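re: the backbone from monday

yeah here it is again, tokenized this time
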């Protein structure tokens, strides 16, 4: 999973979507060449939507993996793993969730803010850590500073990552493995009436700008 995220350079995130929109997002993402996407399980019907996403993916043989984000407990981690999640993403670092993921061979991306929290997540078995909320705790300059004594840190900033070339370039220049991007890719308003062409173009543009800014 790490190699996929590193190659892709970005983990696109969607949340608060209905089943039809979820199908559009999955199909267009796969058609654009996206290999992994995150579905943040924040809505009351998130489990039902995710079940349909897995069914749609399998029925149409889509070459895409689905990470499930906003996982707050080991119960949720187990639930979504059994439903077919390829990866568990958390806003925090939780020992129970980490142990479950390692025991069941499911990729785990915990969230952290401080250097000590990142190192703690590494000790618990995470080889990639989500820096959250990345823009509020110092941005690219913060990443550059903490990687000075620990150059091997594998970080994915989430929060404040935009599609602006200057923004993305500053993150990649700081040494991050990949970036997480959600509302700056699909706004709430856009998701309300999203069609296939809009979604496909959004993913194609995302891939293009990421490749341009990190090379």
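seq for it, each position gets an aa:
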């Amino acid at each position: 999973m790490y190699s996929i995220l590193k190659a892709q350079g970005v983990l696109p995130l969607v949340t608060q979507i209905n089943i039809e929109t979820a199908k559009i997002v999955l199909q267009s993402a796969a058609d654009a060449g996206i290999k992994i996407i995150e579905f943040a399980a924040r809505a009351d019907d998130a489990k039902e939507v995710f079940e349909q996403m897995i069914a749609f993916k399998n029925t149409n043989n889509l070459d895409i993996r689905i990470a499930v984000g906003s996982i707050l407990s080991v119960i949720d981690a187990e639930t979504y793993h059994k439903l077919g999640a390829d990866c568990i993403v958390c806003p925090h670092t939780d020992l129970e969730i980490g142990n479950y993921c390692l025991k069941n061979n499911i990729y785990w991306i915990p969230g952290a803010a401080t250097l000590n929290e990142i190192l703690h997540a590494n000790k618990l078995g995470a080889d990639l850590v989500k820096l959250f909320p990345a823009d509020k705790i110092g941005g690219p300059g913060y990443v550059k500073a903490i990687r000075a004594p620990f150059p091997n840190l594998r970080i994915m900033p989430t929060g404040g990552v935009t599609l602006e070339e200057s923004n993305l370039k500053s993150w990649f220049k700081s040494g991050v493995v990949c970036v997480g991007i959600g509302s700056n890719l699909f706004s709430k308003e856009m998701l309300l009436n999203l069609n296939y062409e809009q979604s496909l173009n959004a993913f194609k543009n995302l891939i293009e700008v990421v490749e341009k800014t990190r090379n």
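The beta strands are 10-15, 36-40, 65-69, 87-89, 107-109, 111-112, 129-131, 155-157, 179-181. Residues 1-204 form a domain with the TIM Barrel fold (CATH 3.20.20.70).
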